[in-house]
Specification:
This protein is of the alpha/beta class. Helices cover 36% and strands 19% of the residues. The protein has 9 helices and 9 strands. The protein is globular.
């Protein structure tokens, strides 16, 4: 790759699995234990707000205890060492990429550590539990705060910026995602239709997307992601001296 080029990385729950956070569709994953229609839709929140708030309180507490793993750290190293732009588009709602030091980060499905006010739209960093008795720090309304999470049927965040990044990237790397939920599941095919970027999949097993990646490494993220990042940076050094 020439210097000044763009790497776009898409991550999913698999990159955080070895930090102890549950994935969604693996054996024992969240959607095997819970009914997503009862917990991850606006309708569910309207019908049973306390149940939904408790579900995200439980996940927020788990995420607060988790530590970034070697895969998160390798991506942060790539961002700082690569002579070009590295952006991470994450479907994950944990804060492990930030904790690892990544800065160019786009949470397309929201963040567990933020709450959004349905009265004024204010988004607030949030630690610990949230209840219906909490007051919006901006407008003071009580009982109007919801998890700043993109629920099924809602539009993911940052899509205009994401479309531009996919159109302009020279290397697209998909890590730890099953390729089952759109629009993220269509990103690899969109990049391939552009015909300019190389596409790479780093995953425990082949994802379900029907567009074959140019390069594929399979195994635990904490092994294959640092290995791939080292290989990429080494080839950069060899090319640019
Ligand atoms: N290392 C690498 N990959 C792993 C590991 C690991 N240790 N463990 C699991 N994986 C892979 C699985 O093989 C699977 O392909 O991570 C992927 C996890 O897939 P999902 O559980 O479907 O998670 P994800 O793709 O992020 O889900 C996408 O679906 O429910 C919605 O909004 C939610 O963001 C989520 C979206």
């Amino acid at each position: 790759m020439r210097s000044g080029e763009r790497i776009v990385i898409l991550t999913g729950a698999g990159i955080s699995a070895e930090s102890g956070l549950e994935t969604y569709r693996d054996g024992g994953g969240l959607w095997e234990k819970y009914d997503l229609m009862e917990l991850a839709t606006l309708e569910a929140f309207a019908a049973r707000p306390d149940v939904v708030l408790d579900f995200y309180n439980m996940r927020r507490r788990a995420a607060e205890k988790a530590q970034p793993n070697a895969a998160h750290l390798a991506l942060a190293r790539l961002e700082s060492a690569f002579d070009g732009q590295v952006d991470i588009i994450t479907q994950n709602v944990d804060g492990l990429h930030e904790a690892a030091g990544s800065r160019n980060l786009w949470h397309m499905h929201g963040c567990l550590n933020q709450m959004r006010c349905m009265a004024c739209g204010g988004v607030h960093d949030w630690a610990g539990n949230a209840t219906r008795q909490d007051k919006c720090p901006t407008c003071g309304e009580i009982g109007r705060l919801r998890p700043h999470i993109v629920w099924f049927g809602e539009m993911p965040h940052h899509m205009p910026e994401i479309q531009m990044m996919l159109a302009q990237c020279d290397l697209f790397i998909s890590i730890g995602t099953s390729g089952t939920v759109y629009p993220a599941a269509g990103f690899a095919a969109a990049v391939q239709e552009q015909g300019r970027a190389q596409t790479v999949e780093l995953n425990l097993e082949p994802s379900q997307g029907n567009s074959p990646f140019d390069i594929q490494y399979y195994g635990p993220a904490t092994e294959i992601v640092p290995h791939y990042v080292n290989q990429l940076l080494r080839s950069e050094r060899e090319k640019h001296g």
